[in-house]
Amino acid sequence: MPTWNNPKHAAQFISTLQTYAFPKIGQLKISDIATSDVMAVLTPFWTVKPETARRVRQRIGTVMKWAVAQGYRDYDPAQNVIEALPKQNKVQNHRKALHYSEVAGCVDAIKRSKAGDATKLALEFLILTASRSGEIRNARWDEISLSISPSSPLPVWSAPAARMKAKRLHTVPLSDRALALLDEAEALSDGSGLVFPGTSQGKALSDMTLSKLVKELGFDADVHGFRTSFKTWAQEKTDFANEVSEMALAHTIKNKAEAAYARSDLIEKRKEMMEQWAEYLAH
What we know:
Blueprint: H1 7-25, H2 35-42, H3 50-70, H4 100-112, H5 117-129, H6 133-137, E1 144-145, E2 156-159, E3 170-173, H7 176-185, H8 207-216, H9 225-237, H10 242-248, H11 256-261, H12 267-282
Antiparallel strand pairs: 1-2, 2-3
Helix pairs in contact: 1-2, 1-3, 5-7, 10-12
């Protein structure tokens, strides 16, 4: 536990074992636990709560690997148990999203809210750029390029590869409204270089801060869901090709043939799309 940064993770680790594993194997010597015992723990909820069951198996395995390293037993009984358990159905949990027609009302509510300025600006900037929470919360001023030149014909924000899910630099063309938000954000600078600094000096806003504001304003949506709202709007209300919105979302092109030819970043088309999205949200 002392090596984990997140106290919540530490609490969850032991609580899942207390709930699911201890009632069946908690009284056994660690050297006596067999694969059949681990099966007995997991079978009742393996297909009913697949994600929880996978975590319980992984955590039992962590304990068992420690026991092997300490010389208390010779093998990890959780290692091969998956082969004997029924196949789990892959359930994709979609993030809650507002219909695109409701997003403008959400943006208005954000502006009128009593939340901190950095929170309000960051959340609207996230919606305008269809970006992920971590990309926005950790955005830095040295990633923003407002000067126009032959090599950089548009104002852009370049999110570094290290912060992107696909681990590739993502250049975002900035709409006029996004630029206006950045103008407001300059007044919040705390010297850390963060565009939207948190309340603690030099620290970014927390993900919970953004989601909490959305929920407090009465909108049943996840912060990540605004990307879905944007994508659906692009599909239903514009004539832009699918690849333009996909590139705006920094999605990886899975078709290898398409990816081989997709060498343009479509920056001009994406700029036009983001401007239309901003105008749509202003109405």
